[in-house]
Each structure stands twice: as C-alpha cells, then as structure tokens.
Amino acid sequence: xxxxxxxxxxxxxxxxxxxxxxxxxxxxxxxxxxxxxxxxxxxxxx
Length: 46
Fold this sequence. Notes:
- It is a single chain.
- By secondary structure, the chain is mainly alpha-helical.
- The protein is about 85% helix and about 0% strand.
- It has one helix and no strands.
- It has one helix spanning about 1-40.
- It comes from Racocetra fulgida.
- This is 8089_t:CDS:1.
C-alpha cells in the first residue's frame, strides 16, 4: 500500500511540475507576443 501511495504522490508532483513548466512557457510566449504587437502597433495601449 505504501508504494502505491508514494507513486500517487509522485504522479501529482510530476503533474504539478509539468503544469508549472507549461505555464512558464505560456507566460513567456504571451509576453513575447505582447512585445511583438507593441512593436508592430506603437499606439496600442496595453
């Protein structure tokens, strides 16, 4: 039973890490997109 519990906990940790990583990637590309848009449309008020 202990092993199953540990595996479940580990699985949740892995999911959390993957979520954090994809969030960081999303945030970075979102910021890059905003910067790109501001360059193309200088009068864009964000």
